[in-house]
Every structure is written in C-alpha cells, then in structure tokens.
C-alpha cells in the first residue's frame, strides 16, 4: 500500500463541515415537521376522506413508498423545471424529503389510528367532547405513542436521505464534503470524516429519542 | 405556418432502448446484491441471535454502522478505498459490494427477528422430541421464522432496488443516471422521469401489495 | 325525564329496536335485562345520541336528542355513560382522566376541574390512586374510574351499558357497590345488566327486552315474581 493518508486538510475544514451538518439537521427537522403534518392529513384522508381526496392521498403514499427517494428529488428538481418552476436546491431537498416522509409516516399513522379502539372515541364523545376535541385530546396522543418509534426511524432516514442533496447541488454535509473533496482530491479522507459525523448524529438522535420517550410516555 | 411541435421532440425511440438497458442494469445490480446480501444477512442474523455478546459487539457494531451512514457516502468511501488497498475496481463491482453489505445489514435484523419470533417454548418442544440443534433450525425455526418475516424481507429487497439508484454516483449507468443524461440532452425532463418512475413503481407496487396481503392473511 | 316514543332503529336491514315506548322519571333506577342481541345496549347508545335513529323520538328533559339543531355535546353533559369496556384514556392519570372533560367541555378552570375530579375519585373509592395511570389499575378500578369520569360532568342521568360483564368475577362486586351507592344517593340510572340480583335489589323498575321489543316492564317483584310474558319466564329460568 503506497497511499499516504492526509487528514490535516480535512481537520482544518471541520468547522465548515459542522456548519454544513447543521444545515443537514435543519432540513431534516423541517422535513419531519412538514412530513408529520402532511402525513396526519394523508392518513385521515385514507381512512375516511371524501373520494377524490382519498385517491390523491393514496397516490401520494404509494408514489412516495414505491419510487426511489432520489427519483422524488429529481422530480422536484428537473420535473417541476419542465413546467418552468425552478426551485432552489434547498427547496428541492426540503420538499422532496417532506414528500417522502409524509408518505411513509402516513402509513404509520394509519396503522396507529386503526390500533386505537373506536370505543375510546365513543367514550370521549359520551362525555360531551366534540369530534375535534376527541381527536386532539384522546386519539392523537395515543397514536403518537404507537408511531413514536417508527417516527424516530423516519427522522434517522430523513438525515440519511438529505445526503442526496449533493446530487442536486445542495451544500449540506454531503454536498459540502464533495465540494472540498473535489478541490483537494482527498476524497477518501473527507468522506470518512463525514461518515463519522453522520454516525454520531444518528446515534444522538436515537439516544435522544429514547430519553425523550421516557419523559413523554410515563404510562 | 410554424412547424408542428411534438411533445416528444428530442426524445426518440432509441432513447427508450437506452433507458431499457439502464433499467436492466438496475435490475442486475440489485438482484445480485439482494441475493448475496440475503445469504450473508441470514448468517449474521443467526450469529447475532445465537451468540449474544461476541457477535453483538463485532458483527452487530459493524452492521449498525452500515445502517447509520448514508448509502451514498458508503459508496463513495469504498469506491475510493479499494484502489488504496490495490484493488482497482469498476463502479459496478464497488457498487455491488457495498449494496450487498448494506443489504446484509438490513437482512440481519430481519433474520434475527424471525428466529426470535419462533419463541423458546416451540424450540424446546423441538429439542425435547430429540431433534438436534441443526434439525431444530432446519425443520422448525426456518419454516416458522421465514413465514413471520418474509414480508419484512420483501420490504428490504424493494428498498435495495430503490436504493440501487445511488450507485449512479459512481458513474454506473443505471436507470436514474441514464434518465439524468437523457434529460440534459433532450430537455424533456417530464416524460423521461415519468418513464423511470413508472419502471420503479411497476416493480415495487405489486410486490409490496403482495407482501402486505401475505402479512394480513398470516397474522389473522 | 327521559321519554322514548315509538323508537325504531335499524342497522342496515336489521331491525334492532321495533317500536320502543318508555319513560324514565327523575330519581328512578331502571334495569334493562334480556339476552344479547335484544337491542338493550343499542337503546342506551340511542339515548346518548351515539347512534342515529330511523323513526320515533327520544327527549331528555324535553330536548329531542336526534334533532339536528340540538347541541348534542351540551345534552350529553346531562347523560353520563359507562361502557362495558371501561375505556379509560391510557395516556392520562386517573385524575387527568376525570378532570379532562370538566375542563374542556364544561370550561371549568384547571383548579376547579381538579377539585371536582378529586371529589369524584374519592366518591368511587379511588382517592389514593389520583396520579396512577390506568395500566396500573385493575379492571374493577378502571371501571370505577370510568364512573367517576362520568360523574365529574355532574350529569342528571347515568347510563350503564353492561358495566360489569367484561370484569373478572371477583371484581364485579366493587363496581356493583359503587352503582348501588349512586342509586342510594338518588341518581337517575338506566342500567343494562346481566346481574339479576342487582336488578332485583336496586331497581325501581325492570324492563325485559326480547328481539327488539320491550316485552314487559314493571317493579322487580312483578318481573321476577310473576312475569306475564312467556319469553320473560323462559329467560329468567335460563339465568337462574
């Protein structure tokens, strides 16, 4: 082996990588928030929405789950470009990830809603709660517990998937790494460090989620 | 009179052939990786289940890394690492190796779940009938565990087919990379993406519905 | 007073209630007995507006339950209901289970809701379980929690839908005791029940339901001692 590893230039660039890592987290978190809200709506529409809306929800969920995430990003990039709508790389990644998250989370939420017995709904209504009070106070908190673990996994996925940003010109952690790597030709070193950063971020999310669960779900 | 404008201008029949070939490569690299990854994954899953902490700390930790780092980073990393250790490899070979390990990491979890799904009482019953450890694995654990986790395995396989699109980053001409190239040349993004998307969807949707059906009929 | 006039209820083609006429007066305890599928539970759901009706009318203190312009959520505050499956809200403590509806439906202050919740939990004998989650309570305790939850709305009527039939036999007594206590306090109650001794000892009147009809209604002594309908006689012989 006659390859000499050069780590120093990578370490000098670490602050930039960390900053890009924050951008990765930002886009992952925002895409999760959008994904959760949209996923809830999609799940409710799939369970008992009016016909045309239910079809749209079904198509959304199936497309998100049955095509590659990269394809979905390309769609928000090139695809919308075909209609003269040119999004920034940031928006392409954010919308692409949100579309994907919403599709996967909608299936989890649907399972969660079906797992809460409908007698809970009746009991709440018999106390005079309105339908929306029942959903907000009784049903959704229980669904959230059921889907908490899948939701954590989806958050990890969002972080991992955001690395596709580098293929659409977005300089989050992976894009930034590629930028520096191609400038210095230290490709292996740069991506090795970035891999470690991703690993640590994923572990922090998993541990944080476990700790939060202990506080959130005492029952 | 202006020239008649066709929606398909720039996009020709042999482009479709080009896409078709690329789709074939997507199928090739994913089938290969799923096959190799599944074999290793089952072995790892068994090891994780059979010897708690030794396998857990070695195989377990390594496989966990493959699940915690973006696949695209893994691909770039290994593609640039192999020449360092003196193996000048093609994008296809590097991609297949990484995808196989990645698949094995996912399948290991599924396989372990399958073995655990069989349950201790059932296995004790098998052993009490005089079956050897291997007979128990072959005639009791395998059929019952397979049934329990087959739908999850289909899910893993489908996600590997979709994730194989990322091998494009190494320059391997699979379906999405071919689409990208065609888009740049023809400026017809919509029709080309629609073709690529339809291919993935046509492959993934029926299989995922089928495994969902199996799961429902087996749990009820 | 609850007044039920010529009530018909269908589930699709199934005619589950076939012209029920029944009045329940303030302060009265009415038990409804009959085999399963006789429509007795459905009647309770109809009174509470949880099920639509196809014909006839139900009024509670003169307010028609199934009129579209009736504020059903407001009317339900008059009608406490306890279900066969106790349906405690698993994500809330006992106190929160009981305090929630007073807070968000009756718009009481947090403190007032808490006070009334505590009072009702003591009432049903769960004063020492305020901060416990339902998963740590037995079935009987959860059912008493459900009773406290309904009582915290300070209802004028209580509807019990087979409140003890999902319980283990040794837990039935504590729930029946709580129901008995409410009856003694003068609560107006309609109890769909399989507990014949409760029906006989606690009720003012007993109604026997058979295949969507109310076969007969009267004081317990008459229903149990001298049933008029052959169906009633057969049913009582089978449960004895």
Short description:
Chain A contains nine helices and no strands.
Give me some keywords for this one.
heterotrimer; A: 219 residues; mainly alpha; MetI-like fold; 9 helices; B: 220 residues; flat
Overall mean pLDDT of chain B:
89
The major sheet of chain C is characterized as:
6 strands, mixed
Count of spatially separate domains of chain B: 1
N-end to C-end Cα span of chain B: 67 Å
The proportion of strand residues of chain C reads 25-35%
State the CATH superfamily name of chain C: P-loop containing nucleotide triphosphate hydrolases
Note the run of SSEs of chain C as H and E: EEEHEEHEHHHEHEHEEHH
At CATH level 3, the topology of chain B is MetI-like fold
**Number of discrete helical segments of chain B:** 8
Share of helix of chain C, binned: 25-40%
Compute the CA-based radius of gyration of chain B: 22 Å
Low-confidence stretches of chain C: none
CATH topology term of chain C: Rossmann fold
- Weakly predicted, low-confidence segments of chain B: 1-8
Give the name of the CATH architecture of chain C.
3-Layer(aba) Sandwich
Give a quick account of the main beta sheet of chain B: strands, pairing sense, barrel closure: none
- Oligomerization status of the protein chains: heterotrimer
| Helicity level of chain B | over 70%
The structure class of chain B reads mainly alpha
Class by alpha and beta content of chain C: alpha/beta
Describe this structure in words.
Chain A has helices spanning 8-12, 14-48, 51-66, 69-81, 89-115, 118-126, 131-161, 173-184, 187-216. Chain A is mainly alpha-helical and 219 residues long. The radius of gyration of chain A is 21 Å and the shape is flat. The N and C termini of chain A lie far apart (57 Å). The relative contact order of chain B is 0.15. Chain B has a single domain, classed as MetI-like fold (Orthogonal Bundle). Chain C is α/β, with parallel strands linked by helices. Chain C has a single domain, classed as 3-Layer(aba) Sandwich (Rossmann fold). In chain C, the strands form 2 sheets. Chain C has a 6-stranded mixed beta sheet with strand order 6-7-8-3-9-10, with helices on both faces. A 4-stranded antiparallel beta sheet of chain C has the order 2-1-4-5, with helices on one face. In chain C, helix 3 (94-104) crosses helix 4, helix 3 runs parallel beside helix 5 (139-151) and helix 4 (110-123) packs across helix 5 (139-151). Chains in contact: A-B, A-C.
């Amino acid at each position: 082996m006659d390859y000499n590893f050069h780590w120093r230039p990578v370490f000098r660039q670490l602050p930039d990588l960390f900053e890009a890592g924050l951008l990765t987290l930002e886009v992952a978190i925002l895409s999760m928030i959008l994904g959760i809200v949209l996923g809830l709506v999609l799940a409710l529409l799939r369970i008992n929405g009016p016909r045309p809306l239910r079809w749209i929800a079904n198509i959304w969920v199936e497309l998100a789950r049955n095509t590659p995430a990269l394809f979905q990003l390309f769609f928000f990039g090139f695809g919308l470009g075909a209609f003269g709508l040119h999004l920034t790389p940031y928006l392409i990644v954010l919308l692409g990830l949100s579309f994907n998250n919403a599709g996967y989370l909608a299936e989890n939420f649907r399972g969660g809603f079906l797992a809460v017995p409908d007698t809970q709904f009746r009991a709440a209504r018999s106390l005079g709660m309105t339908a929306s009070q029942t959903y907000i106070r009784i049903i959704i908190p229980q669904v959230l517990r059921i889907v908490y673990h899948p939701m954590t996994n989806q958050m990890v996925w969002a972080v991992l998937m955001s690395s596709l940003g580098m293929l659409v010109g977005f300089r989050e952690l992976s894009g930034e790494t590629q930028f520096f790597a191609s400038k210095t030709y230290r490709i292996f070193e740069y991506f090795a460090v970035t891999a470690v950063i991703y690993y640590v971020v994923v572990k922090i999310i998993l541990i944080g989620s476990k700790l939060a669960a202990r506080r959130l779900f005492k029952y | 009179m202006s020239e008649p404008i066709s929606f398909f201008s720039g996009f020709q029949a042999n482009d479709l052939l080009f896409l078709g070939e690329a789709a074939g490569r997507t199928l090739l690299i994913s089938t290969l990786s799923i096959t190799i990854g599944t074999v290793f994954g089952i072995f790892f899953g068994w090891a994780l289940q059979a010897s708690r902490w030794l396998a857990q700390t070695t195989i377990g930790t390594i496989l966990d890394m493959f699940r915690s780092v973006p696949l695209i980073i893994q691909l770039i990393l290994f593609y640039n690492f192999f020449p360092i250790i003196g193996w000048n490899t093609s994008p296809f070979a590097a991609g297949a190796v990484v995808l196989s390990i990645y698949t094995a990491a996912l399948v290991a979890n599924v396989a372990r779940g399958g073995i655990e799904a069989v349950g201790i009482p059932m296995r004790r019953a098998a052993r009490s009938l005089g079956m050897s450890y291997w007979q128990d694995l072959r005639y009791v654990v395998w059929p019952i565990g397979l049934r329990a986790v087959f739908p999850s395995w289909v899910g893993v396989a489908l996600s590997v087919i979709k994730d194989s699109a990322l091998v494009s980053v190494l320059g391997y001409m699979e379906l999405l990379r071919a689409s990208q190239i065609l888009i740049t040349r023809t400026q017809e993004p919509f029709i080309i993406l629609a073709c690529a998307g339809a291919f993935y969807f046509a492959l993934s949707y029926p299989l995922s519905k089928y495994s969902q059906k199996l799961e429902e009929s087996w749990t009820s | 007073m609850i007044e039920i006039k010529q009530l018909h209820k269908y589930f699709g083609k199934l005619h589950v209630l076939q012209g029920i006429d029944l009045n329940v007066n303030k302060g009265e305890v009415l038990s409804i007995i009959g085999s399963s599928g006789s429509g007795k539970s459905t009647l309770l759901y109809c009174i509470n507006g949880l099920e639509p009706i196809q014909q006839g009318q139900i009024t509670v203190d003169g307010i028609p339950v199934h009129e579209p312009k009736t504020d059903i959520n407001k009317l339900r505050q008059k009608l406490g209901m306890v279900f066969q499956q106790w349906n405690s809200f698993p994500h809330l403590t006992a106190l929160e289970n009981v305090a929630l509806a007073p807070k968000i439906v009756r718009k009481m202050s947090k403190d007032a809701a808490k006070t009334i919740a505590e009072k009702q939990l003591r009432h049903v004998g769960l004063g020492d379980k305020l901060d416990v989650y339902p998963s740590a309570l037995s079935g009987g305790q959860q059912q008493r929690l459900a009773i406290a939850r309904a009582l915290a709305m300070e209802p004028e009527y209580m509807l019990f839908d087979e409140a003890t039939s999902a319980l283990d036999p040794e837990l039935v007594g504590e729930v029946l005791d709580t129901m008995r206590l409410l009856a003694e306090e003068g609560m107006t109650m309609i109890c769909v029940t399989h507990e014949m001794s409760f029906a006989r000892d606690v009720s003012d009147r007993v109604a026997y339901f058979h295949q969507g009809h109310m076969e007969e209604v009267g004081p317990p002594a008459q229903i149990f001692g001298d049933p008029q309908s052959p169906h009633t006689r057969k049913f009582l012989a089978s449960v004895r």
